[in-house]
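Structure tokens please, single chain.
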Amino acid sequence: MGNKTVRIQVIGTQSLPDREPDTPEERIEFVTVGTYHLRLADFYVIYQESELTGMAGVTTSLRVHGGRVTLNRMGAAELKQEFELGVLHRSVYNTSFGSLWLSVLTKRIETDLTAQGGRISLDYDLFIDDKLVSHNGLAIIIKEEPFR
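Here you go.
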């Protein structure tokens, strides 16, 4: 399977650890066009971040391999983050304002991908400098669509 141009829907949710039970979680959703391909049994999704996420000028690449998802952000901000069920992964997040340690503890990871597209779903806790800052969800929906 070579590079395919696909429609990518990104849905991100975030809630604070000490939020009141009836406070809604924050939600960001956008649709973009990107590329999708399979190489050596690993699926890759690549897209440009939106200004909605505060990361304009950043290219995001997701690699699904086995039971893991690797997120790699390049450009105005740089981050390589591993998502693996029940494992705490640390990384350095580099921005124009400086660097900080980010860690994720993945609570749920589901991937359902075929040559035509599919879905990647993650739930994880996010830590900055080892302090829990939020509970997060990320869903990436990949669809082959006719482009005109």
